[in-house]
Amino acid sequence: MPVTDRSRLTFYLLLAPLLLWLVTLIILPHVGMFLVSLREKVGVREYETGFANYAVFFNEPLYWNTFARTAYMSIAATVLTLLIGFPIAYYIAKLTRGRTKTTLFLMCLIPFWVSELVRTFGWMILLRETGVFSNVLQWAGLADAPVEMLYNDAAIMVGLVYTSMLFMVVPLVTTLDSLDDSLIEAGYDLGASGFAILREIVIPHAMPGIVSGCIVVFMLSLGNYLTPILLGGKDSLWFTGLIYSQFITRFNWELGSAFGFLLLGLSSTIVFIGLKLSRQSLGRTMAQ
Amino acid sequence: MATVSLKGITKSFGKTEVIHGIDVDIRDGEFIVIVGPSGCGKSTLLRMVAGLETVTSGEVQIGGARVNDREPMDRDIAMVFQNYALYPHMSVYDNMAYGLKIAGTPKAEIAERVAEAATLLQLEDYLKRRPRELSGGQRQRVAMGRAIVRKPSVFLFDEPLSNLDAKLRVQMRLEIKQLQRRLGVTSLYVTHDQVEAMTLADRMIVMNAGRADQIGAPLEVYANPQTEFVAGFIGSPPMNFLPADMAHDAPPGAVKLGIRPEHLTLAQTGTAAKVIYTEALGAETLLHVDLANGTRATVRQDAIAPHPKEGETVHLAWDAGNRIFFDSEGQRC
To answer: Which of A166, A202, B184, B300 has its CA 20 to 30 A from that of B102?
Structure first.
């Protein structure tokens, strides 16, 4: 069967780059990290296999408090991004046409023309003690001394929401665009109030977009390192910060790997719960 | 059930006026068809009655009360949309019940009214399905059912049959007509299909570029078109337009002579014309002919009549009483 053989060969050749990418860049490092995380250091260059590194995490309140805090701050950032992003996406998708639509969409994209580092420094210029907001408040007479707005949870939240907004708006605009205007008009015709239409027609339709936007924003926030560290300062207590210090500062790769796996487990669990709660399937959401 | 009156309705989008003053009084229980080519403003007019577009000037009255500033839900109307606008995430039952549920109707009454409408529309077996599991005709029925269960004073139809195939369209056309007769609800129906307009309407409004060129019963409009546009739009194949000087008794100012294809007959003498091609449709045959002055005309003949071959020269005759003259503005004269 030369024809089948050839088509099968083509198939494997086409598949090869994907497999190479999956195996070398995703599976191998994770397997390696998992093995490292199971090594217990008992002496210089002496190791035993066991779960001691994971036990360290559960026995040290600072670690799991930071872990929990990272989780709920990320969830809060996701919810905030959704609440701000939804009206923006609705406006872009339903209330504007043609040129205005493109312009507004581009404006959402503009912050991403510079690196995350530059964007975050931009916020620092605005929020720091000698920064723009502080000076304006003093000039307006609303404050009589410099105000420090950096290095607190609100600053972290602002940074996270700002960084992730695009990833919420794009899937929302796509799903809302596909909602036929006549469905909304029929709702008004049938006597529904604006709120009822939003709740019973617009949101059910936009659900796949909402879920995929939330998954992306949540994962970006959970795995973010730069924004929490720069805007939150040394009190930021972000879990990625702990992983960094285990690997780089304390050179404790074993504990760092264990932390990495815990973070992977956390994000998978929360995404799974989110999908179950919204009755969406991962396949349907990703196809969006 | 109610009367509907439009008094000097105009509509502008920005500086562009798209509807230039429509006046019509619709009787209780009447079936009115608004017909015209795309872009003539017929859908916009319907949407102003529905409350989905604001009225720039003039007055919309339903049941004698001014409704310009009322929300769609306070107008006691129900609209059937072109693409049906059914909710994909709701079952057929929930789609039909939605309006009643919003209005706070008791559950038992909702069930009763939906069941009644479902029987009327032969939808009993489909109530638990989702719209995407239905055929086009069934979706169309659900859309009508959703309007019927609310027992409105006025039905508004926005090209409800344009997404169906030709055969189903003819069938649904009959069903809509029967349903409207049975329920006796005042209806406004928008379409671009003049056959739909002719068959459904008690009276029709022929719209052209934002104006109502003529309002009247279908046969009255067919027999006595008031403008050249109406004469050409209503009737298929369209009316023939010949130079007015072909008639020695044309009224002053007339530039065109209109005559329907069925009013042209073949004779031994008369205006000479060359047959360009023939269309045998079974029950009738259409002859497309060129007159000596270059005008193309259509002659409708019974299929049983022996008809000339393509390329032959024939002679046309017509009865003076069937001619209609139009001036340079396209108005009847």
So the answer is: B184
Q: Residue B315: which CATH number?
A: 2.40.50.140
The verdict on residue B332 lying in a domain is no
d(CA B145, CA B124): 11
**A106, A101, A213, A103: which is closest to A165 by C-alpha?**
A213
Q: Which two tokens stand for residue A117?
A: 């580092």
Identify the CA nearest to B6 among candidates B44, B60, B56, B49.
Answer: B60
- Closest approach of chain B CAs to the CA of A3, in angstroms? 40
Interface of B with A (CB under 8 A): 50-52, 71-73, 77-79, 81-83, 85, 87-89, 98-99, 102-103, 146, 150
Sign of CA dihedral B309, B310, B313, B316: positive
Taking phi over 0 as left and psi of -120 to 50 as alpha, with beta for the rest, A36 belongs to: alpha
Q: Is residue B225 located within the same domain as residue B253?
A: no
Does some domain include residue A33? Answer: no
Same domain, B200 and B243: no
| Chain B: closest CA distance from residue A261 (Å) | 39
Q: Give the range of the structural domain holding residue B80, as residue numbers without chain letter.
A: 4-231
Joined tokens for residue A73: 């701050």
Contact B102 A201 (CB under 8 A): no
A272's enclosing H/E stretch is helix A253-277
- Residues in chain A closer than 8 A to B83 (CB atoms): 180, 182
Q: How many helices (H) and strands (E) does chain A have?
A: 15, 2
Domain count, chain A: 1
The conformational region for residue B151 under phi > 0 = left, psi -120 to 50 = alpha, else beta, is left
Q: pLDDT tens string for chain B (333 positions)?
A: 689 999 999 999 988 999 999 999 999 999 999 999 988 999 999 999 999 999 999 999 999 899 999 988 889 899 999 989 999 889 999 999 999 998 888 999 999 999 999 998 888 899 999 999 998 889 989 999 999 998 899 999 999 998 888 888 898 899 899 989 999 999 999 999 999 999 999 999 999 999 999 999 999 999 999 999 999 999 889 999 999 888 888 888 889 999 999 999 888 888 889 999 988 888 888 999 999 888 899 999 887 777 788 888 889 988 888 899 999 888 888
Q: Which alpha helices (DSSP H) does A110-225 contain, by range?
A: 116-127, 132-139, 153-177, 181-189, 194-197, 203-222
Residue in A closest to B81 by C-alpha: A182
Structurally, chain B folds into a number of domains equal to 2
**Which structural domain, as residue segments, surrounds residue A207?**
54-286
Instruction: List phi, psi (to 5°) of B164.
Output: -100, 160
Q: How far apart are CA A75 and CA B33, in angstroms?
A: 55
Q: Could you give the ipTM of this predicted complex?
A: 0.78
Bridge partners of residue B158, in order along the sequence: B190
B333 assigned to some structural domain: no
A246 CB-near residues (< 8 Å, 6+ apart): A252, A253, A255, A256, A259
Instruction: Determine, yes or no, domain membership for A34.
Output: no
User: Which of the four pLDDT bands, split at 50, 70 and 90, describes residue A64?
Assistant: confident
CATH number at residue B42: 3.40.50.300
The residues facing B10 across adjacent strands are: B20, B57
Q: Give the burial class of B303: count Cβ atoms within 10 A of its Cβ; 0-12 exposed, 13-18 middle, 19 or more buried.
A: exposed
Q: Say yes or no to pLDDT of A286 above 70.
A: no
**A208 upstream amide cis, omega within 30 of 0:** no
3 state DSSP class of B144: helix
